[in-house]
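testing teh design pipeline on a random one, pls ignore if ur not involved
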């Protein structure tokens, strides 16, 4: 057999890890000088710039005079760039972030002349089952990757990867890694030994005659003696063809072959570590990232559409800046948190700056919309529905700043019954500097309230008003009680446990919600159980300070969970309870079927993992959860993988701890239990219980010989004291339901993450702005009938200026959608295609549409 040896020259460019982004940007400048000069002198050479276009931005920022030469090489196909903007993680970040990363990456590459249409993700810690469809909708028909494959998936490393919706692309597992042929030896004898090892692996796993030899590594400079090396290889394998090639040519060699079909996520850890429990590393950073994703995709983009009704400019430039900053934190190491303390601080600071931009922009839009109201009463409250369909009996939580503590809220002439959640007296001069400048002593009441709005149209604004009352002292409406209830549930504290009565079944779930603390001997890549553990759960807890708040249609139960626990691993070994963990739990119950939980906690413990526990009392072998614009089913326990991993010497234990997006559900023929999460993305199901990891604390970037990960350390063995998260404060948001309704779990999760929001036009503000030129109440709405399909994006198209909507069908059945006039097919590039009147959207299919603005 004559082999076609294709050498793929590249560099893998981690922008940050145990080194900072600033350091690599300086190194990149020098690297690109060498690459460009080498490619200009050697026209037979192709060089892949790691599949991420951000390297062009980073390089040209420091070397603007080199842009024309760079463009020339990209147009010739000598320098291959894109399709990603950054090398994103493909499990931890939002599905929209993955799509937008490809969008901006391809746009940037095309700005330079061409884009590499290959789903190159060499070092990512696993791959979502939805990626074949996402790639396909961008015109990408293949993916090349290293981590996540094993013979349980397919015997050969070349295969057809079938996505959850049925989309099929070529999959190529880099059997010798993206770094398999790094720094090929100049010495002929040494090169022969090296190449024989490489070819032995490739001969075993390659499906056709082509052999992909990956000549590159992390920040590896271009190998300038590649021509002499190729001559030596030709001498070794005289019947074989040897050339510098590209990914596309390798895919061409697979066409016409009968390839194995592979389905599902690619997350096996046989040949390379996947780090499944990196999902709970540095939760402070992960939760901040998720907050920013939700603020962009769920709040600010639809809010900006409403702003257009007042001729307020849609801020594409702000979105692009913020998203690209986010993408910089989405690389597998960056969002994974497996970095030095210095790098994690840099990531957190960059995300914090994005948060400041987004929060200010959201407040500005709401204030402008309120100021533009034609209502002569300036005590305006505006409510916002960010979903494109009508919603009823929705809870609104919002803040008021008032002169009196007993203010009233009105919906037209009808007074709105609200629940006062908390209230404090503050100095108005700390809000508005003009108050301080005038030496005025004005005290105001800062209140957080919750109320229910009867109905609000899709993508619309609803206008309320408020009035000051007569009381100038703080109000307190808390009562010492231990239970709350609605028509569906009764939730009560009894014997230091939280119990749930499901009324229509007359069934009690004992100890329905709790928090578990246990040891963690792992590092920034993986949780690992310690050799000596001490697990504390509800039987070890004290519940104290039970309080209840009630209004006509809402009730809130508050209490503290208090644990005496080991301060660190040394104390755990000795079973000494010399530390304390206090969790403030708030349970909110309205008339809906979802129970909302907020958990406040400040950490003082080391070497510890904390998990929220939902007791479902449902025995099942499968788990339903959401992934990227889809729903997946997985085993509760990965029996096959766990039965062979030690004998087959997998790189790490394939633990049954999995990643999800926003919900996890257990069900049987009669019952269902679902837990919803805002930003927590790691679950495990054991003994009918769903465990959601809150956070974990540990001491090192990398450790060796972990129980679940034997052998060398991942990363490097340096201390990272910031990872102990000492005195870090958290606010976790969860919800759960035990009731089947007409809405599927994906719909409920989207609404849980996208509540109706309220804004008060305040008397005191940090900044002064003018009243908009356009004075009107926004009366537009967008009431689509989605029949169980879920919105992923609602924004203005960058290409046409029209309303762009992306939905997906999470159900198991095909759904027929019917649209009014002015609706068009679109694509991932937000371009207008054919007229769309009705469409049968398949199970797990993603649909992009444009709606003309009236």
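output:
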């Amino acid at each position: 057999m004559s082999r076609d040896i294709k050498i793929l020259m590249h560099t893998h460019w981690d922008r940050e890890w145990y080194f900072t982004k600033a350091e690599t940007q300086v190194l990149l400048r020098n690297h690109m000088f060498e690459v460009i000069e080498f490619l200009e002198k050697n026209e037979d050479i192709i060089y892949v710039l790691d599949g991420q276009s951000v390297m062009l931005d980073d390089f040209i920022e420091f070397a603007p005079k080199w842009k024309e030469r760079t463009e020339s090489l990209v147009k010739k196909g000598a320098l291959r760039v894109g399709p990603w903007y950054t090398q994103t993680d493909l499990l931890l970040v939002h599905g929209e972030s993955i799509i937008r990363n490809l969008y901006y990456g391809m746009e940037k590459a095309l700005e330079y002349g061409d884009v590499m249409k290959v789903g190159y993700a060499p070092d990512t810690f696993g791959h979502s089952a939805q990626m074949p469809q996402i790639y396909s909708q961008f015109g990408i028909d293949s993916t090349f990757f290293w981590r996540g494959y094993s013979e349980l998936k397919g015997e050969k490393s070349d295969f057809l990867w079938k996505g959850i919706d049925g989309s099929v692309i070529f999959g190529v597992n880099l059997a010798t890694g993206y770094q398999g042929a790094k720094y090929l030896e100049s010495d002929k004898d040494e090169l022969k030994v090296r190449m024989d090892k490489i070819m032995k692996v490739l001969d075993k796993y390659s499906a056709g005659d082509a052999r992909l030899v990956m000549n590159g590594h992390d920040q590896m400079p271009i190998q300038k003696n590649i021509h002499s090396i190729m001559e030596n290889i030709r001498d070794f394998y005289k019947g074989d063809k040897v050339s510098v090639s590209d990914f596309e040519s390798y895919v061409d060699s697979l066409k016409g072959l009968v390839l194995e079909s592979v389905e599902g996520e690619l997350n096996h850890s046989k040949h390379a570590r996947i780090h499944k429990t990196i999902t709970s590393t540095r939760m402070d950073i992960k939760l901040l990232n998720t907050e920013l994703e939700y603020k962009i995709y769920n709040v600010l983009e639809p809010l900006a559409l409403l702003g257009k009704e007042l001729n307020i400019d849609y801020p594409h430039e702000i979105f692009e800046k913020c998203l690209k900053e986010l993408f910089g934190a989405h690389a597998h190491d960056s969002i994974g948190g497996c970095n030095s303390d210095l790098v994690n601080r840099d990531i957190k600071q960059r995300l914090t700056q994005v948060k400041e931009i987004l929060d200010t922009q959201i407040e500005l839009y709401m204030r402008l919309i309120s100021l533009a109201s034609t209502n002569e009463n300036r005590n305006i409250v505006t409510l916002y529905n960010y979903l494109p369909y009508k919603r009823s009996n929705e809870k609104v939580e919002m803040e008021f700043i008032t002169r009196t503590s007993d203010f009233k809220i009105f919906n037209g002439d009808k007074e709105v019954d609200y629940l006062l959640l908390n209230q404090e007296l503050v100095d108005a001069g700390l809000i508005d500097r003009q108050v301080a400048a005038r030496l005025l002593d004005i005290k105001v009441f800062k209140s957080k309230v919750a109320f229910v709005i009867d109905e609000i149209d899709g993508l619309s604004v609803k206008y309320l008003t408020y009035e000051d009352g007569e009381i100038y002292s703080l109000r307190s409406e808390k009562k010492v009680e231990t239970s709350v209830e609605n028509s569906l549930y009764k939730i009560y504290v009894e014997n230091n446990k939280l119990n749930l009565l499901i009324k229509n079944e007359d069934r009690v779930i004992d100890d329905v919600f709790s928090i578990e603390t246990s040891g963690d001997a792992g590092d920034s890549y993986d949780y690992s159980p310690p050799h000596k553990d001490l697990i504390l759960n509800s039987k070890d807890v004290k519940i104290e300070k039970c309080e209840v708040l009630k209004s006509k249609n809402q009730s809130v139960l508050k209490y503290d969970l208090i644990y005496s626990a080991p301060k660190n691993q040394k104390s755990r070994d000795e079973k000494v309870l010399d530390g304390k963990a206090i969790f403030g739990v708030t349970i909110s119950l309205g008339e809906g079927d979802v129970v909302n939980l907020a958990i406040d906690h400040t950490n003082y413990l080391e070497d510890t993992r904390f998990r929220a526990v939902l007791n479902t009392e449902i025995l099942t072998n499968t788990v339903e959860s959401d992934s990227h614009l889809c729903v997946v089913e997985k085993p509760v326990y990965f029996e096959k993988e766990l039965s062979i991993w030690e004998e087959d010497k997998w790189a790490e234990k394939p633990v049954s701890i999995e990643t999800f997006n926003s919900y996890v559900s257990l069900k049987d023929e009669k019952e269902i239990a679902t837990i919803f999460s805002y930003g927590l993305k790691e679950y495990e199901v054991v003994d009918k219980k769903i465990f959601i990891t809150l956070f974990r604390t540990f001491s090192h970037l990398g450790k060796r010989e972990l129980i679940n990960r034997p052998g060398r350390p991942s990363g490097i063995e340096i201390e990272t004291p910031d990872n102990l998260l000492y005195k870090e404060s958290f606010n976790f948001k969860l919800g759960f339901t035990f009731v089947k309704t007409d809405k599927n779990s994906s719909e409920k999760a989207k609404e849980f993450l996208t509540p109706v929001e309220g804004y008060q036009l305040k008397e005191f503000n940090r900044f002064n702005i003018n009243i908009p030129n356009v004075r009107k109440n926004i009366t537009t709405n967008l009431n689509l009938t989605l029949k169980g399909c879920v919105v992923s994006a609602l924004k203005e198209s960058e290409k046409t200026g029209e309303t762009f909507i992306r939905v997906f069908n999470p159900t198991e059945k095909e759904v027929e959608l019917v649209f009014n006039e002015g609706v068009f097919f679109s694509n991932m590039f937000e371009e207008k295609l054919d007229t769309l009147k009705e469409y049968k959207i398949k199970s797990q299919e993603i649909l992009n549409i444009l709606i003309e603005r009236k």
